[in-house]
Write the structure tokens for this entry.
Amino acid sequence: MLSKPRLAAGNRLSLERTEDGPSQPIKKEHVNASDPGEKGPTAAAAPESTSSPANVVAVSRQSNQQGLYQSISLFPELNGLERRLLESMLHKQIEVDRYVLGPSFRERHQQAFVDHLQTDMTLVKDAFIACTSLMVGNSQIRQLAQDQHVGHKRAANALASLRRLEVSGSHNSSTVLMLGVAIVTFASHHSGGELPLCRHILDLIKRFHDNEPAFIQQLGSDGISALNCLIATETFICLLRGQLPSVRIRQGDLDGLVDRFIGVSAPLLTHLYDICELTQVMRHYRRGPSKIPLRARLRKRIETVEQSLQTWQPTSTATLREGHFTPTERTLMNTQANTLRLTALTVLHRLQHAFGTDDGKAIAMSREVLGELHTMVQLTGRSAPCADFAYLVACFEIVNPLERGTALSKLHLVADFSPRTADELKTWLLLFWTARDNSGVGPIYWDDMEFQLFGTASRT
């Protein structure tokens, strides 16, 4: 029997971070002039002495990079193209702007891959090669990788390693989460299966999150962003399937965070988890005998979550106004936060009121979401992470055929993560609209969504 690879203390290189130390509370991800190795918005232009901290870090990075090049040669199974892909990642010749909220986060995200190659190249190389085959800036290399199916081969190897992986301590969780983001990114572009992948990866670190109050702070900015990315991906699918996500972020743990993927909206993940839980409870309640006390308790729980969402505001808005971010980034983050909040409220409404009933509130919120998303694209020329889910939920409310056609024609502008993702959303919309227009289907509540989209849950 093959032994399972382990992440244990003492057998990994220590991680060099440019934004924060692993034991410091992480409240902001944006870089500033005092961060070693980073060019903040007010960085001094004067030359520094060779003994300055910044130059010491630069020399250390150069030495580490040379060591990484030597490490690549220790894997004879890698062909020339695969080595070239890893070298492109080391040189930061990868295009990440589509995946983060703007250029303020670009350098940190590119450096994250370099840092984690240094931490454990054996573990992450296959997933990172697969991911780089999508992101490499050189179009010729990208086409060669596609023609030779490099990404699929390395993704298969990464999945095999992931299935055998055991994590012995929370100190390695950041690397595991970055590995997971790379695999899920590739899957989102090609094969799908994001839900089981996210579940497996998050299950590897769940016990550390649940049992160690300082777990979030110890992850560092890369680990926190990877955690947010995986939790958000899993949670949106769980909302559609009426399932419970793997991890519930403790309230307050992500307050003040400005994240490269989810901006100032990370605290909403806790509320979305609670809505997933309510969806499960409502499904069981609607399929069981009517119990008035249970109904009262459910109503109270829904009202509590609803009130929290109605009054919720990002705790990081002051940071956005301090000049650390571009106008485009601020627009993307503010739109992301408000549309996700309204989306959560729309789902809560449809847990209580079937589609086609009590429509006024839901239609008003959906129109606001669609309007904000279209304005965001017009102003910035791009979409934001997580905007595709908000767009999907808002479009469920559309009944006019012409408006539906317009929504489908503009879908790719908002769901721009990958063509596969856009096609999947289009399929779900058509399935749901068909069911909603079919008078024989009966009332459709949000907890019926899994049956309507996937046909995998029984209806009463």
User: Anything to note?
Assistant: Strands lie at 6-7, 166-167.
